[in-house]
Amino acid sequence: MELHDYLVILRKRWMSILLITALWVAVAMSATLLATPTYQAKSQVFVSVSTGGSTADLLQGSNFSQNQVTSYTDMVTSPRVLIPVIEKLGLATTPDQLAGSITADNPLNTQLINITVTDVSPRTASDIANATAESLGTQVTALEKPAGSQPSPIHVSTIRTASVPTAPASPNKKLNLVEGLLVGLVLGFGLALLRDVLDTKVRTDADVQKITDASVIARIGYDDDAPVHPLIVHSSPHSHRSEAFRRLRTNLQFLDIADRPKTIVVTSSLSGEGKSTTAINLAITLADAGSKVALVDADLRLPAVAEYMGLEGEVGLTTVLIGQVDLQEAIQPWGDHDLHVLTSGEVPPNPSELLGSRSMANLLEQLTSQYDIVLIDTPPLLPVTDAAILAKITGGAVVIASADRIHRQQLADGLGSLEDVGARVLGVVLNRLAHKQNNGYSYYDYAYTPAQATGAKGRRKHSRSASSDPAQTRTTHSSTRRVSSEADPSETDRIDQEPVRVTSLPHDDL
Q1: Predicted local confidence at residue 499, as pLDDT
Q2: Phi/psi at 444 (nearest 5 deg)?
Q3: 293 - beta bridge partners?
Q4: How far apart (Å, rounded) are the C-alpha atoms in residues 74 and 273?
Q5: How far apart, in whole angstroms, are the C-alpha atoms of residue 510 and residue 505?
Q6: Which residue, of 190, 271, 282, 457, has the greatest Cβ tally within 10 A?
Q7: How far, in Å, CA of 223 to CA of 220, rounded?
Q8: How many CB atoms lie within 10 A of CB 495?
Q9: Distance CA 500, CA 117 (A)
């Protein structure tokens, strides 16, 4: 991963990182406040050897004492030293327990021993440190005393008496706060990074680009009322989602001017990704633009076009393929424009064989000779092979990918099934995008205002906020004011006749 990838993760997951950091800081401060304060007292002793006055004797004594200091340091926490301390101070503890609160160290190349005592009472800590230093000197003198009446050559002298500490050694509030902050940031970013690595769902164009060279030809947003109004282009033609479908229409029209497909399969990798509603809305927008369109419901397993469009579904594609009726008898007109729909008909026992038959190929040839464009709604790619069969004998497939639902591997497998049969992938449509997932795109939205409300017909006012009523919103198709332009004479004529309000909006609302 590059620096840019980490910055993207930070921008995308900053809220969770902040929450984890705050939580960790709160835990650290809570532990600090609940912890019992402890105090540390330190005493220091010096180990020396009695020798003669010559330089050789002094050097020999110094080397000897340095070698012995290591042993004396270990003696500090021994029962021989600590039992007299317990008896002197009247402590209710054992030597092993007391040893747990005492540490001793010998600075490098010195004859010094530092004795540090930790206790909840500052007075007790200093008393134990001083008593331990005194007891160590007594025990070393006794152990090193030669036979007879000669005095011990080793002397352990206290050179620093432990004083009563005035501030607790722990907990350190400032240090704990800094550590909690740093640990929280590292943990938060680490979890965000792990989540991003493990998150294989398709959410953005970048996710699609990781698995295919096919372009994202449209981004369609998700509205809460989308399931209630699936034909958004018909029920709310000026909404943002309707504009997204017009953008899809435009991009398809300019996809390949030299070899523009006349028959297009609309499919998805999994069921429930919105392929049927996309096919229907795309067909309506194409018809609105003046094209003669045929919409074929070739999903012979779970057909939905007839139900969505309010048409008779018993007679349709299957009845035409088996020769019971002619195409002209089965196909049904819909709406005010030149849109005709061939519903699925009765569900057959052998959909794949029927769609791959010679009759289906002949039907497609007949449709392409009569219509400017033929859209074919098919089953999803992964469960069955129907869509791949039809994509091979048509101009290509538009694959719908539902954001936050389908995983990258599933989309890759779906696209792979098309590549395996040599079918052409025209592009990918990211469907059901949340507003925040459309960052970086903008378009111009024109809010329609009646002449009576403005007081001047034909007058245009620039505004930075759009009308909240979709019915009062209209979108131009001017190439100078949109990223993806389209020519729609009927829309342009109406714009010239009606006053509008110009509004610049982000593509989050598509």
Answers
A1: 37
A2: -100, 130
A3: 339, 373
A4: 73
A5: 10
A6: 282
A7: 10
A8: 19
A9: 83
Superfamily of domain 39-160, CATH level 4: EIF_2_alpha (3.30.70.1130)
The DSSP annotation for 301-369 comes to: SS--HHHHHT---SSSHHHHHTTSS-HHHH-EEETTTTEEEE---SPPS-HHHHHTSHHHHHHHHHHHH
Q: Where are the domains of the chain?
A: 3-35+184-198, 39-160, 205-438, 440-505
Bridge-based pairing of strands 102-105 and 339-342 is unpaired
The amino acid that residue 299 corresponds to is: D
The token pair at 496 is 């010239």
* CATH number corresponding to 205-438: 3.40.50.300
**Angle of CA points 456, 460, 463, to nearest 5°:** 125
List, in sequence order, the alpha helices (H) in 76-121. Answer: 79-89, 95-99
Tokens for 5, please give them: 């990838």
How far is residue 298 from each of residues 286, 301, 394, measured CA to CA in Å? Answer: 19, 9, 13
The one-letter amino acid at 422? G
Using the predicted structure, report yes or no on whether residue 353 has a pLDDT greater than 70. yes
Distance CA 279, CA 260 (A): 18
Tokens of 2: 């590059």
Alpha-carbon torsion, ordered 78, 81, 83, 85, to 10 deg: -130
Q: Pinpoint the alpha helices (H) of 93-172.
A: 95-99, 122-144
Which residue intervals of 349-457 are DSSP H helices? 351-355, 358-370, 386-392, 408-420, 451-454
Tokens 């497998």 locate to 413
Alpha carbon distance 264, 296 (integer Å): 10
Q: Is the peptide bond before 303 cis (omega within 30 degrees of 0)?
A: no
Cα–Cα distance for residue pair 366/352, rounded to 1 Å: 20
How do residues 280-289 score in pLDDT, each as one tens digit? 999 999 999 9
Q: Are 267 and 308 in contact (CB under 8 A)?
A: no
Nearest to 308 by CA among 233, 229, 376: 229
**Whether pLDDT at 252 is above 60:** yes
CB count within 10 Å of CB 19 equals 12
Nearest alpha-carbon partner for 448 in 437, 459, 438: 459
Give the CA count within 13 Å in the CB-facing half-sphere of 89: 22
Q: Are 212 and 51 in contact (CB under 8 A)?
A: no
- pLDDT tens per residue across span 127-165: 999 999 999 999 988 888 776 666 777 888 999 999 999
Residues 6+ apart with CB under 8 A from 209: none
What torsion, rounded to 10 degrees, do the Cα atoms 18, 22, 28, 30 define? -170
